[in-house]
Structures are given as structure tokens and as C-alpha cells.
Amino acid sequence: MMSKVAVVYWSGTGNTEQMAQLVAEGAQAAGAEVSTFTAAEFDSSLVDGFDAIAFGCPAMGAEQLEESEFEPLFQSCESKLSGKKIGLFGSYGWGDGEWMRTWEDTCRADGAFLVMDGVICNDAPSGDAEDECRTLGGALA
Question: In angstroms, rounded to a whole number, what is the distance separating the alpha carbons of residues 41 and 135?
């Protein structure tokens, strides 16, 4: 049976959106049925309809998730993530990826199954980061 994968992201400058497209490509190439949503288009009632979910959000401010749209959405989904295959991705402009490590810890505490380490890239994805995004998609499929 074909697995159903959701790619849910928030993007300010388009970098995380590019990553979302690459994650979706990787999942499709691995045979999954993929649906892509912006944070505004997704809500917690949709979580159970997918076998795996990739969440994408850039690092904002002091290395944190985007607060107005993405973080409330993610928090609303947290109670449904136990046992769910999850992947995380996002771009950053500075710092060392602390926001991603914190986010991974949150997902583990929720009981989610992280299919691989979160994929982060500085600014727009290129080369290795593009490959990692596709690998993440494949791992979720």
C-alpha cells in the first residue's frame, strides 16, 4: 500500500519552501502519495490521515520556531505525534542549529519517531542540503 506523506511548512523568504518541495520530491520518488501544505492550510484534524509528516520551519529570532502561524499549529498537532513517523527541516541565517535540536527533543518527548536527524541549511538549499531533503522524503515514504 502506498504510504501517505504530508509536507507541512512555513516559509518567510522561500528557502524553507524550496526545501519542502525537495522533501516532497524525495517521498514521491520513493513511491509515497504526497500532499504539501503551508502551516495555514494544515491543522491537527489532518494528522491521523497521514502515515508520516515532514514539518518545516526556519529558525526565527533567537533560534526558535516562527511564532504566529507555525508554532501554534505544531503545538496543536503534538498530542497526535506519538508513534508517528516525523521528519523535520528548515533553513537558518545564523546560529548553529540550536532550534532544530530543541525541536527534535520536543518531538521525541511527544513520542514521535524521527526518521533521521533534522535537515538544516544555511539560506537556500544547494548541493548536500538538496540531497538531504530528498533523503528525508524517501525516509518518510
Answer: 25
